[in-house]
Amino acid sequence: MKKMKIFKITFCAIMAAMATIFNFIEITLPFGFNLTLYGLPLVFVSFTYGPALGLLTGFVCGAIEQIVKGISLQTFLWIIAPLAWGLLSGLVYHGLKKLFNDNKVYKKIIYYTLGILVSITVANLANSAALAVFGYTSDPVSSFGLFMAYAFARMISIPFHVVLYVPLCYILCERMKKIG
Predict the structure, then answer these.
(1) Is 27 helix (H, G, I), strand (E, B) or coil?
(2) Bridge-partner residues for 35, per DSSP?
(3) Which of 2, 52, 125, 142 counts the highest number of beta carbons within 10 A?
C-alpha cells in the first residue's frame, strides 16, 4: 500500500514536469495554428488515477509554469487551463465509465474523446480570457473582440488535439492498467 502511494506521487510529479516542459514546445500546423502536448500528461494522470490526482498534478504544473514565466495579474486565469486538463478530463471519463458501467473498447475511446473535448475547450477559453482580459487593451469591447479572436483561433486546433491525444491516451492508459 505504501509503495503504491509513493509510486503515484512519483508518477504525478513526473507527469507535472513533463507537462511543464511540453508547454514550451509547440508544433506549428498549417495556417499558423499551434499544437502542444502540454495536456497529454495531465489527462493521462486523470484517466489513470482519477480527477483528484489529475487536479493536483495540474495545479503543480500550473504553479511551476507561473513561477518560471513570472507571477502576474493573469496568473489565476493561466492556472485554470492545467486544472481543467487534470480535473475535467477525469471527471468526464470516470463519470461516463461509472454511469454506463461498460469497458468495451469503442466506449472507452468515446469516453476519452469526450473527456479531452471538455477539458481542452475549457482550457482554451481560459487561456483566451487570460490573453484578452489583461492583454493589450483596457477597453471592454476590444477585450471581448480579442477574446473571441483568441478563442476562435484556439478552437480550430481542437480536432488536431483530439486526433493526437485520444489514441495516445488509450494506448498509454491501457498499458498502465496492465502494469498495475
Answers:
(1) strand
(2) 27
(3) 125
Quote the pTM value.
0.87
Q: In sequence order, which residues have a C-beta less than 8 Å from that of residue 141 and are 6 or more positions away?
A: none
Strand partners of residue 34: 28
C-alpha 77/C-alpha 128 separation (Å) is 9
Chain centroid, CA 179 distance in Å: 24
DSSP 88-139: HHHHHHHHHHHHHT---HHHHHHHHHHHHHHHHHHHHHHHHHHHHHSSS---
Helix/strand/coil for 24 = coil
Dihedral (C-alpha) 88, 84, 169, 34: value to the nearest 10 degrees?
Answer: 140
Q: Can you tell me the mean pLDDT for 84-93?
A: 94
Q: Residue 3 CA to chain centroid, in angstroms?
A: 27
Q: What is the DSSP string of 136-177?
A: S---HHHHHHHHHHHHHHHHTTHHHHHHHHHHHHHHHHHHHH
Under 8 Å between Cβ of 46 and 30: no
Contact 157, 29 (CB under 8 A): yes
Cα–Cα distance, 60 to 49 (Å, whole number): 16
